[in-house]
Design goal:
Elements (H helix, E strand, L loop, with lengths): L1 H50 L4 H23 L5 H22 L2 H17 L8
Helix pairs in contact: 2-3
Length: about 130
């Protein structure tokens, strides 16, 4: 009976050790694939924005909106008086504000192109410039 018990304990110990090793290697692989996907998404976003043919003034205004958003979001995140729910709520409102400002800078034609890009993104799961 002791031998059977020791055999079962040994098998359990080995299998736990095996599973523990597999999960760490998968996490490293997942991080690498997430980084690669993010970089690819970043390139696709740039291509989509380039297809809008923004003027320098529009680019500068959008960059200013982005910088303003980043600084306000950082201030919200650092505020110790806010709960996590309040931070999320404020950041969501800030995102809507940034989106509205960016849409104001676009011409009607650019807005239509942007809608087409977003529609294609929803369908394919990728950001891509619309096919003209």
């Amino acid at each position: 009976m002791k031998k059977l018990f020791l055999f079962v304990v040994a098998i359990v110990a080995i299998s736990i050790g095996t599973f523990a090793q597999d999960t760490t290697s998968n996490k490293k692989h997942d991080k690498k694939s997430l980084k690669a996907a993010y970089k690819g998404d970043k390139k696709e976003k740039k291509a989509a924005m380039k297809s809008l043919n923004l003027t320098e003034e529009q680019k500068n205004e959008m960059k200013a909106n982005k910088d303003e958003y980043k600084s306000k979001a950082a201030a919200i995140e650092k505020d110790p008086n806010l709960s996590d729910a309040q931070k999320k709520e404020k950041k969501d409102a800030l995102k809507k504000e940034k989106k509205a400002k960016n849409e104001k800078t676009l011409t009607p034609e650019q807005k239509e192109k942007m809608k087409a890009i977003k529609k294609e993104h929803k369908q394919t799961g990728k950001t891509a410039a619309p096919k003209s």
